[in-house]
């Protein structure tokens, strides 16, 4: 076994050897590329630039909630600073409306509904202070479930909102229309 004094020396020799081998391999690769270039008469870059478009990750990523909650729903009003007082669900999550929806007719299905989660209920929703309970209803979706509406606007949650204070979907243009929060008066915030 080597003495403790020779261990740093052995490690140093090993590191120098690895650096020399790496340098030789790089030099060999350069010579091979240069020879091939000289024989063909065509100069090519070592690394061709990427020309095909990159596929960006979905923005936002689809929801991880594959089975949407259905049950009792209550609507409320929350003050969100720059947005003012807006309609939220009973957990404080921001609710949105889609400009392509006709009154009481949701149009967001499939991939759209993976990003914009329909607010589902098994009965007409309750309402907190400031909510017109008579304007809170449900309408049938094509998939047989009941979606909550307020003043005729089908309501959605946004998969890009991570907390109950987020409103990252306000003003987004996705799936052929715009998405907006609802003011306390039940109107889309432009």
Automatic annotation (TrEMBL):
<keyword id="KW-0732">Signal</keyword>
<dbReference type="GO" id="GO:0043448">
    <property type="term" value="P:alkane catabolic process"/>
</dbReference>
<dbReference type="InterPro" id="IPR005297">
    <property type="entry name" value="Lipoprotein_repeat"/>
</dbReference>
<protein>
    <recommendedName>
        <fullName>Lipoprotein</fullName>
    </recommendedName>
</protein>
<dbReference type="Pfam" id="PF03640">
    <property type="entry name" value="Lipoprotein_15"/>
</dbReference>
<feature type="signal peptide">
    <location>
        <begin position="1"/>
        <end position="25"/>
    </location>
</feature>
<feature type="compositionally biased region" description="Polar residues">
    <location>
        <begin position="34"/>
        <end position="43"/>
    </location>
</feature>
<feature type="region of interest" description="Disordered">
    <location>
        <begin position="32"/>
        <end position="67"/>
    </location>
</feature>
